[in-house]
Design goal:
Layout (H helix, E strand, L loop, with lengths): L1 E12 L2 E6 L5 E2 L2 E3 L6 H13 L3 E16 L4 E14 L14 E6 H7 L3 H19 L1
Parallel strand pairs: 1-6
Antiparallel strand pairs: 1-2, 1-4, 2-3, 2-7, 5-6
């Protein structure tokens, strides 16, 4: 099985988190593949800006998720490991990158976003990341 290392961002503004709806109609978080020599944190920031047009800063690590799928184009199973980072956006101005296949997106109240997100491990990730985000806001 081919292993892919990825990185992404759980991006907050106040009590809202940023979500994207992809070409399959799934609600997801911005993320991308880590290429040779890149740091996970750099990739996460780049993908947040590329996919959502958001300027953000990393507040803390958020953990990792893993999932497996069958790639039709590669005709092989793929295992993705995603390193996630809690981020704070400068503001709520975003631009969905439709050329990347995203159909919709925006900032949603965290309680609503967790229910909207397609995958349960990403739902849990957002809930835990929000708790950490709030703790960092108090410091």
């Amino acid at each position: 099985m081919r292993q892919r290392n990825c990185a992404g961002g759980v991006v907050f503004v106040d009590n809202k988190v940023f979500l994207l709806r992809n070409d399959k109609g799934e609600w997801v978080l911005p993320k991308g593949v880590i290429r040779d020599g890149e740091l996970a944190s750099e990739v996460a920031l780049k993908r947040v800006e590329h996919e959502a047009g958001l300027k953000a800063k990393i507040v803390a690590p958020a953990g990792e998720t893993r999932y497996e799928f069958f790639s039709i184009s590669r005709r092989a199973p793929i295992s993705n490991k995603i390193d996630w980072f809690i981020m704070q956006a400068e503001d709520e101005n975003y631009t969905i990158n439709k050329e990347e296949g995203f159909q919709d997106g925006g900032f949603y109240p965290t309680s609503e976003a967790a229910d909207r997100i397609t995958y349960s491990q990403d739902q849990a990730l957002v809930r835990l990341a929000y708790e950490k985000y709030l703790a960092f806001q108090k410091e």
